[in-house]
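[Q] Does anyone have a clean structure-token version of this?
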Amino acid sequence: MATMFDVSQQELVEKAKEELKKIKDIQPPSWAPFVRTGLHKERTPSQDDWWYMRAASVLRVIVLKGPIGVSKLRKRYGGKKDRGVRPGRFRIASGNIIRKILQQLDKAGLTKQAEIGVHKGRIITPAGQKLLDKAATELVKQKPKPEPKKEAKKEEKPKPETEVKQDIKKQDNKEDNKSSKKEEAKEDKPAAGKNPKDNKNG
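[A] Here you go.
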């Protein structure tokens, strides 16, 4: 089975969102279509199912950073507020939205409260981990297997006429040089049956 780390995290959240829609305990409240997700946002979310998207994202963050609480999640989902001509400032996200999502995830059995050392907050349960791994496995199955790359044969381009003529000239020059060297070597050799000393004395 594939894990959540084997796939794209954006695709994982999208797939986990669809799985969360099947759980009755996770439902957007009546005021969800009319609220902003933080002070840094100017408008309400454009997606109709943004509540499930945020819940899936929170579930993923709990796996990575758990145990984690509302205050740290508010900072994680915060952003810079546009203040016009004045410099932008960071604003944390809505705590009510995150708190309600955590309560719903606890009720669905996907997360639970725990304390590890000095850290306390929500951690993932086996059911929550199973949901994410199932989503990752389905994503892996949906991806087509990469086909083996075929080595393309390099087609030799015909040489232009000018290059062909140059190659012929080079070969002719090499043959002329070889024949001239052979003739010089023959002239340097003494004639057969004659002693070179006789030539000196004569």
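[Q] Thanks! Anything notable?
[A] The mean pLDDT is 83.
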